[in-house]
Prior knowledge:
With 294 residues, the chain is α/β, with parallel strands linked by helices. It folds into 2 domains: 5-63; 86-291, 3-Layer(aba) Sandwich (Rossmann fold), CATH 3.40.50. It has helices spanning 5-19, 25-40, 48-63, 70-91, 97-110, 124-132, 141-153, 166-180, 201-206, 232-240, 249-255, 271-277; strands at 156-160, 185-190, 214-217, 243-247, 262-267, 284-288. The protein has a 6-stranded mixed beta sheet with strand order 3-2-1-4-5-6, with helices on both faces. The longest helix is centred in the first third of the chain and has 22 residues, at 70-91. The radius of gyration is 19 Å and the shape is globular. The termini are close together. The relative contact order is 0.14.
Amino acid sequence: MKLSAMCIRCLMDRQEERVREVDDEDKKAAFLKDVAGIIASAKEEDSAPCLVYHINKVYERLFGDVMSYEKEKREFNALMLGLERKMEEDIHEGKGEERILKNALNYARTGNYIDFGAMNSVEKDQLLELLHKAKEEEVDEDTFAMFLHDLETAKELVYLLDNCGEIVADKLLIKVLKEQYPHIHIMAMVRGEAVLNDAVLEDAEEVGLTKVAEVIGNGNGVAGTQISMLSKEARDVLEKADIIISKGQGNFETIHGCGWNIYYLFLCKCSWFSERFGMERLKGVFINEKKLAV
């Protein structure tokens, strides 16, 4: 996805906020100059998550380790695991396979709220409220019809994971897909290195996702799926996929425009996404790559 003016401004604002409390003005100025330089020299294919990856290298050089989200990851994995049984029961209360699949899509999409990169704060009460209303949400019917058609003939499906906690709801969607379409081989993909509260292999193991589907890392620490930085294994898997389910804004930002058969599933959590998709903040998107202009 091409960088918009709004994304550029947001990148600069978030990095200034990041170092605002630092006492050393020279270091702060040097950092923000380097940030501006990274943005100014961005290539056509460089997404915001990719630029943040390079910005983090500058931050580490000047200020030390970037913030760890290990505590938050464990906390929200545990919270969602505690809710897993109730979510699964609610999903299967649907009448007919299509309603069950829609319920699973809605819970997986709602879990995308747990995003410490896009959100200023992630509140448990807000998450519980969103999950309580998940079954009432609808998915785009045209996209859902395309999805069902593709699932009938697909042999390989890749599920691009996003955040910890959220991956518990992703596990439930994958289970429904395996129940309804046993002919499809499903592989899930996590980040190759720790970044924000995004899921890595250890997190997938922690929530039992590795018992449901094969899980691999993408080979890098970008908070998305930056094609130019994927490992050979990850890229080969994606290129061979008949269907890709892409969770979250970061994955959208990094792979939109690639031409693969991708179904994007996420909540709008910032002004640019709300404006682009004509949706209120924290409303959900389910759309296919083919229906989107670059």
